[in-house]
Specification:
Two copies of one chain form a homodimer.
Chain A lengths: L1 H7 L3 H8 L7 H13 L6 H8 L4 E6 L5 H16 L3 E6 L4 H11 L5 E5 L6 H7 L5 E4 L9 E5 L1 H14 L5 E4 L6 H17 L6 E2 L5 H12 L6 E4 L2 H13 L9 E3 L16 E3 L2 H17 L6 E5 L2 E3 L22
Chain A binds a DNA duplex (16 and 16 nucleotides) through helix 2 and helix 4.
Amino acid sequence: MRDVARVAGVSVATVSRALNGSSSVTGDTRAQVLRVANELNFVPHAGAQSLSLQRTDAIGVILPDLHGEYFSELIRGLDLGARNCRKNLLLSASHGDVSEAIAALRTMRGRVDGLVVMSPFTDGELLVDAVNGATPLVLLSTQAGSGADAAFGVDNHAGAAAVTRHLLEEGHRTIAYINGPADNLDAQERLRGFRDAHAAAGVKPGPVLRGNFREDSGFSAALLLLQKTLPDAVFAANDAMALGCLHALRNAGVRIPHDVALAGFDDIPVARFLDPPLTTAGVPIAEIGRQAVERCVRLVQGDAVAPTHALFAPTLVVRASSRNTRRAGAPPSPTGETT
Amino acid sequence: MRDVARVAGVSVATVSRALNGSSSVTGDTRAQVLRVANELNFVPHAGAQSLSLQRTDAIGVILPDLHGEYFSELIRGLDLGARNCRKNLLLSASHGDVSEAIAALRTMRGRVDGLVVMSPFTDGELLVDAVNGATPLVLLSTQAGSGADAAFGVDNHAGAAAVTRHLLEEGHRTIAYINGPADNLDAQERLRGFRDAHAAAGVKPGPVLRGNFREDSGFSAALLLLQKTLPDAVFAANDAMALGCLHALRNAGVRIPHDVALAGFDDIPVARFLDPPLTTAGVPIAEIGRQAVERCVRLVQGDAVAPTHALFAPTLVVRASSRNTRRAGAPPSPTGETT
DNA sequence: TTGTAAGCGTTATCAG
DNA sequence: CTGATAACGCTTACAA
């Protein structure tokens, strides 16, 4: 910038003003400065700018992972929101570990104006403590009362209960469940929904298998199931595991849904492309991301928004994978999709 | 930091030294400072730090998109590389537009030490000009001679030719092609590979349909194909479009591979889970991302590395979707996967 | 070993 | 309308 000032024969202050379109600059000097800046292809140093302005125009995002269909879809929404607000996104992965999340948090101080953190951990308060009100904080997938400025989540209990109810109504009697990570709040709520729906129907829940929300754990769980009498249906706590499960079962020659019905949770983009298309609890993943970022930006701007804990209600998406073909009087719809 | 200094009864310089483990600090003062810093839960301001240190410990990444299986997988690799080097990732999307990419580039000045940019655009030199050597730059998916410090790409021509050859060898006579965006270099090379393989085999290529690398364009292309006599096989320029194509064909009651064989490009994670599993050109997506970041970091550190344009050779991944079941003497392998 | 002060590249205040 | 100059929060000579 000094160079530009020198060449243009003005002071750095004037350069700054000209570049930022301050009104109090002669048309001549402005033109001159812009010309020189262009010649020297000067690009303002965003780091210095934000130090001076006390604002970075960036939102920090910390997610358990940055890959996989679920996070990919979430990131799509986050990006959308950021674009809408003309903010940058600083993404970081905590790899499912609170301490890593906190470390990421620390490196973001002074780099971002606000934070969107997904913290499905039981000990998520640590995170809020770490931020300590220093920065606007929006939490994702967290239980209520978290002390953040805002929180967005999914009604996991209702979603899981709806899927379970659907499976029971289809006439499936024993339903096996592939669980998520034990310390994951989303997973805990889904399991509760699964159990409560059974209790309400007066049916004994099938076996609950260990899982970690990743595809391979769905695969392994299916292998376990194959060693005993197969259940009528399998409900995986997310679509990724349902995918792995589907794969393992098909490898074993099990026909879905004829031999075993299958359902998942999330409605990730591929769910509808599987064969058979997957019944699942539809979550507006991208939409949640978008709203989270936009809310965060609003907090940064100081727009007094009431602290919220918004809970999105999943919609039951019935596709072919859950159909009970053993039962009479269940005429398959042509496309197999209802909502 | 001033607060810490005041409370600890030392100068800010000492605080800085204590926090950064400078050797010339008494054990006592250090302990004292650390204690106070902890009490006040002081977190260094990364922005100010980098202004002073002239280094941000962050790598900027600009991709056409941040979502979808392909980019998701790429981001996994980028994150891996960044973690290995203990760097942060500043991600941005150019949405397939050079000017947006350049805009993103500008906002990154002073925020990152180096750049990894995916620029499959025909006018990618603009990008290099924009950076103007100010920052180490690693390019992805770019044609050679780009003027960047390093470039990583895929041998698209070889990959597409291999897939085409495979389809021809399977006995498919007319092969339709779903193309990528016209101004995309990867897409251009793949089309060339498709054509050259036909020429080498003395077979006339089937129809080439317009596409944009996204799922829905594969779907539309398939609808077009369904209006005429179906080809023996369809080769989509990437897996996402193959997925869309698969979906449309199946909706129409077309059996794959019996009625029409199908192949894609990339080997995204779901490819093996489709029904039938998808034949494709396997690209080590995540690995490319990891290497790109690590190379970028090395450039930042000034390790004199020779400028490279590394080209990864795709591996032909044959799965069930390309089998010619109309031909005699093609006994299906049990898993249907070979490499 | 520690403190003082200059500097990183901007913006903003305050005189001129 | 424009130019000095003090921040912004940190690091690092240079002095003490």
